[in-house]
Amino acid sequence: DKDQSEHDEL
Amino acid sequence: MNIFRFAGDLSHVFAIIILLLKIWKTRSCAGISGKSQILFAVVYLTRYLDLFTTYVSLYNSVMKVLFLATSGATVYLMYVKFKATYDHNHDSFRIEFLLVPCALLALVINHEFTVMEVLWTFSIYLESVAILPQLFLVSRTGEAESITSHYLFALGSYRALYLLNWVYRYMVESHYDLIAIFAGVVQTVLYCDFFYLYITKVLKGKKLQLPA
């Protein structure tokens, strides 16, 4: 699971 | 990156280009809410501060710069260059009613209590409701030009396509972000009434006119 505070969307 | 997200991003860029072209070609911003455009500029400014701290991809960085530049240009055209055509009287939505609750909510419900993260969360909440002054303007004047309707349709489709992106990412990557998903659902729901009118009227060549 990715860290939720890594935002890779726009 | 999946097809839904890419289609959503394209739809978002398309919406912005339609709006800029409409204002530029007609030399007028009649029917467009300057308040919504200011809110979108605030959304991009608070969300894309991470341009300086986090690198995701060239695609992401280019799009972020594009959104910042085009929203700045839109606000400039409306409030400076074509100020005389701006419809002040009908654009009377009070944006503090959106800004304050979004700020408070971002302070309370966020992934992490840091400046960058709270600003990101604020931008997500604000984006979900930033179209309200525009929808309010359309409801006050009772109609929208076709080009304005196309703009709204492309802008609304963008978050609807992102919903599909989030479903896909949950199923394929087990990745989800509840704040973005919740705000995205709210944002899309706000457009539903408009989508209905767009499909039943504008696509059939009629002007978007609200029932009296």
UniProtKB/TrEMBL annotation, chain B:
PROSITE patterns: ER_LUMEN_RECEPTOR_1, ER_LUMEN_RECEPTOR_2. The keyword Zinc does not apply. Keywords: Endoplasmic reticulum, ER-Golgi transport, Membrane, Protein transport, Receptor, Transmembrane, Transmembrane helix, Transport. It is found in: Endoplasmic reticulum membrane. It holds the Pfam family ER_lumen_recept. The keyword Glycoprotein does not apply. Coiled coil: none annotated. Its main location: endoplasmic reticulum. The chain crosses the membrane at residues 62-80, 92-113, 119-139, 151-172, 178-199. GO terms for biological process: protein retention in ER lumen; protein transport; vesicle-mediated transport. The lineage of its organism: Eukaryota, Metazoa, Ecdysozoa, Arthropoda, Hexapoda. One of its GO terms (cellular component) is endoplasmic reticulum membrane. The gene is Dere\GG10131. Belongs to the ERD2 family. It comes from the Eukaryota. InterPro entries: ER_ret_rcpt. It comes from Drosophila erecta. One of its GO terms (molecular function) is ER retention sequence binding. It is a multi-pass membrane protein. This is ER lumen protein-retaining receptor.
